[in-house]
Amino acid sequence: MMNLRKRIFIIISAVVAVILVFILLYFFVFNKEVEESFLPPSQPSVAVDQVTGQVIIPKVEPKAIITDEFGAPVEKDADETYAKQISRIFTERFFTYSNQNDNQHIEDVLTLLTPSMEKWVKTQELEGGDQYSGLTTKVIASSIGEIENNSATVLLDAQQTIRENGSEIVEYKSGRVDLVRSGSDWKVNGFFWN
After folding, report:
1. Coil vs helix vs strand at 137
2. Model confidence, pTM
3. 182 Cβ neighbours under 8 A, 6+ residues apart
4. What is the set of domains in the chain, with CATH numbers?
5. CA 176, CA 139: separation in Å to the nearest integer?
6. Which of 45, 97, 102, 140 is exposed most, by the fewest CB atoms within 10 A?
């Protein structure tokens, strides 16, 4: 019969052996997948004209180059993302308010607006009240309708939660934000619910 020390030694040896097997399997079997993921992507095959023997170079359509106020190129995808972000921020801030926030929603968006839009927004002040009523707007989807060098249109869908007299109503709306470029920034020049 084995004594306690021998049994403990055999159990520990078996556990160490199992761990070593897993480590070796990792390095020799699973590690190949890791090595393959770091290989450079395969180059496209070169097409050769059978008659002339010349290499055929595929035509690549040039992208429109959008520049900022200093003439530096602005990446179109980044420009679209920025336009959508400004539209989302304006919509959520301006259309989230209550009758007890002292029109803070208007102050929050003034830096995002053109002068003409700023004049209109300032006419949208709300009167305060003792009974709470409010609106919370969350943009749930946005997409670029049009984008040019100095103007863009962003289409969006929003969820609005209306709270009044202790009740809550959820509505869904679609709208359009018109933007114009001011330097390297986009400014909101118009907003329209569908």
Report:
1. strand
2. 0.60
3. 114
4. 69-193 (3.10.450.540)
5. 12
6. 45
